[in-house]
Here is the input.
Amino acid sequence: MAQVKEFKTEVRQLLNLMIHSLYSNRDIFLRELVANAADAIDKARFESLTTPELAQEWQIRLEVDKENKTLTICDNGIGMTEEEVVENIGTIAKSGTKAFIQMLEARKDQENIPELIGQFGVGFYSAFMVANEVELRTKKAGSDAPAVCWKSKGEGEYELDTVEKTTPGTEIKLKLKEDAELYMESWKISEIIHRYSDFIEYPIVMPEVKTNEDKTETVTDRVLNSQKAIWLRKASEITDDEYKSFYGHISNYGGEYLKAIHMSAEGVSEFKALLFLPKQAPFNLLMPDIQKKGLQLYVRRVFITDECKELIPDYLRFVNGVVDSSDLPLNVSREILQENPHLDKIRNAVTGKILSELKKLKENDRDTYAAFFKEFGKVLKEGIHTDFTNAEKIKDLVLYETMNTEAGKQISLEEYVNAMPEEQKEIYYISGEKREAVEASPALEYFRSKGYDVLFMIDPIDEWLMQSMFQYRKKNFKSITKGDFEVEGSADALKEAQEKFAGLVEFLKNTLGDKVSEVRFSARLTESPCCLITEGNALSPHMERLFKAMHQEIPVSKRILELNAKHPLVEAFAAVYSKDEKQPELAAYANVLYDQALLTEGSPLPDPAAFAKQVSELLLNAMAERRPR
Ligand code: ADP
Here is the structure.
């Protein structure tokens, strides 16, 4: 007896999209179904290592019935029990699906959506882009459970029933929509298989009818894919098209790749690998939970697992590829994998290779490297904090904008250090939200006057990373907006100013109250009257805002107001103050001075309206004096 069940809400929304909104690049439905078939065979073959009765001639078959307008994808893989069908096909278990659906709905450019479908692991449903009814019959390998038939028109519900099917595996029959009848043509099917599924290890076959001379017909199976394991071949023998097609097949993101890296390791650990650096970052690069990562692991050409995270550190998660090991046992289980010392060796070798290739790229093709770093730099940098062994190598790979570069252009730490004047001892940096915010900081004045360059740390991760940077080439990093700052020969002048303007300093401290922990003179400034500095180990205001944006409670640090003794404004303020300490305008002057220090460092004002009011009043007073009477 057939039972009728309802799809879960998320599946229904997704199907609705598939059926009614997606018309571009529908070809990928076949890639997705063939990939599922190959996965199912991978699983069955894996089982057969311990249960030899399950072994057979693995194959994916594509059958067309022109009369009934159907295309059927058959595999002799692992199959599913009824429960598994309900679990796998009736619901979407992945977290983040809701966000994904919302994103799909909101997108204007429908062009790339099919790529995202594959990324998101909802490939099965893409069948509904071309079919108005899908019938799946499946029998679980090595189980007594009866075969199941799942049927749906994609509109809210599906039907489940038991069926006669004696061989294990899955058949998916698509009743093609009128505008999708093209997918019954063998040239079209071959084209798609060649483009997307050429490297699938199992033969993908299609029965072909030949009319003989005596008018009889013979049916032969034509194999549509080459099945070549490209990673075992020499780089020099692989064509660009082959690389492209393989990348399309294994990449977690789709899109184009920047560079293919071949590895062949012998000795301690024997393995071959083919790795790809992608060209563009996927939309979810910084959303680790919903992102596929890791490399594919094969053992002597037998597929073991996808997304093997043990093979590559997290900060290289954008790398796609395949590792084929000769050392691991074939019947390795996924749990054992996690503790296998061979995997550590492979990971170390893979990491070293990628870092050295990146270094070569940086040295030999700077523009390409710069483009790569724009896309993936923020992820790569994490390694400085997480991979102690390779931290120095990663420091060689990071790029920063600086005070002396044009906007958008970046230099390496090596270039920074090489350009340091002899008397400069430390590597200076300033952190903030964006270039415009740090570029205008008065704290840069001294460095500009001395001809020292200053690194702009304008990536959200930068300041956090500084905790692990310590040094580069034995030179310390120093924030120019944090802590004490000494300039040779300035101590006496500062002490003098501190004494000369003691009254004003005291007044500012009292008036600004809680906003500042200290008011002092410094040699940091040459053009501006004042700036705000953070105490040595306190968070910068930029970091404070980042933490707040992440809803984290953090203590707000008090700032130090630094004054420029040579600035006429300071001089004038002191004079006005000593004339009459009780003038009501003095407090307004102090507040405006403090607020403009906030503005120049790119911090928002706590009370912009009050600031505007005070500035207006000051303007009015100034004008009243100049106004013709
Ligand atoms: P994904 O393959 O990314 O998990 P799909 O929506 O394509 O997402 O498939 C959902 C699940 O259905 C698969 O994970 C698998 O468990 C099951 N499945 C799909 N096709 C087959 C098949 N041909 N044989 C066995 N199981 C399958």
Remarks:
- The mean pLDDT is 87.
- The longest strand covers residues 131-139.
- The chain has four domains: 3-223, 230-375, 398-480, 488-629.
- The domain at 488-629 is CATH 1.20.120.790 (Four Helix Bundle (Hemerythrin (Met), subunit A)).
